Amino acid sequence: MKGIILSGGNGTRLRPITGAYQKQLLPVYDKPMIYYAISLLMMIEIRDIAIVITGKAMKSLETLMNDGEYTGLNITYLREDEDECEGIAKAMRRCKEFIGVDNFVMVLGDTLLYGAELINYLKRGRDVLEKKGHAFVFETLVSDPTQFGTVMYDGNNNPQRIVEKSQERINSRAIPGIYFLTSEAMQFADAITKSDRNEYEITSVLEEYMKRGKLETQKCGRGIVWIDTGTPNSINNASNLVRLIEENTGNIIACLEEIAYNNGWIDRSKLEMAIAFNAGTEYGDYLTKCLQ
């Protein structure tokens, strides 16, 4: 199984900041935004990852990830220029050769998910994908579902339709930025047309699975928090959430080196190198505790 992180886009809701910086490289409290998305893949032991990134940010991202030396990841970088951003499904298609015939999990680079039961939902998605060959998404509670994709169900609670940014409130849930997909997704993406929003929508791909009876969903409980960090206010909220959790628990969320070490992807010497690189910071001090 492989992973995709979509970190393209123009970040228009964050201008003027994103006039010079790529959104997914902006800080969310103590680490770059993209760390939170990458950590979701690492939590279910996905090691081969393609990251779709704009040309202006590719070098910065390569420097940040340091060829996966401290994370044990095998990273492929795929370029999407700012004038080529035409929706999630279009960006996903850039990974067609990378995916081949493999199943994959795709995460949007501005996704932050947190909760005690999160790992169970991630593992459920992986199992549905690997054992049944079905696509899978879960739904989280949000304050304004009209800003996101929402699943509509029939009388038997089977997914019937997915509405992207509905003008009317359908329910209180939305699909967060993570999708468990088979390689068929690439074929579906090739066949869809642009939506009324002039984009190639991931919801159109999910509806192709739905037509074939191959889309499974699960509603998350109240303990799962999803923040789409696409506006200044949401980045501030996400930073405050991360700070509150880390200060009160003593654990760092989305610490990639810690996950890699626990997964057995890097050894003690690599973690010590990461500690040296981050020396004099709270992040480096936390990595030192991981060795104990």
Description:
With about 290 residues, the chain is of the alpha/beta class. Helix content is about 40%, strand content about 20%. The protein is built from eleven helices and 14 strands. Helix 1 (about 35-45) runs parallel beside helix 9 (about 255-265) and helix 10 (about 270-275) packs antiparallel against helix 11. The longest helix has 18 residues, at about 230-250. The model has no long low-confidence stretch (mean pLDDT about 85).
Which features characterize this protein?
292 residues; alpha/beta; 5-stranded mixed sheet; 3-stranded mixed sheet; 11 helices; 14 strands
Main β-sheet, spatial strand arrangement: 5-4-1-6-12
Rounded average pLDDT: 87
Please write the string of helix (H) and strand (E) elements. Answer: EEEHEHEHHEEHEEEEEHHEEHHHH
Shape: globular
Brief synopsis:
The protein has 292 residues and is of the alpha/beta class. It is 38% helix and 22% strand. It has helices at residues 33-43, 55-65, 88-93, 96-99, 118-132, 184-191, 202-211, 232-249, 256-263, 268-277, 282-290, and strands spanning 2-7, 27-28, 31-32, 48-53, 74-79, 104-108, 111-114, 135-141, 149-153, 159-164, 173-174, 178-181, 215-219, 225-228.
Set down the secondary structure blueprint.
Elements: E1 2-7, E2 27-28, E3 31-32, H1 33-43, E4 48-53, H2 55-65, E5 74-79, H3 88-93, H4 96-99, E6 104-108, E7 111-114, H5 118-132, E8 135-141, E9 149-153, E10 159-164, E11 173-174, E12 178-181, H6 184-191, H7 202-211, E13 215-219, E14 225-228, H8 232-249, H9 256-263, H10 268-277, H11 282-290
Parallel strand pairs: 1-4, 1-6, 4-5, 8-13
Antiparallel strand pairs: 2-3, 6-12, 7-14, 8-11, 9-10
Helix pairs in contact: 1-9, 10-11
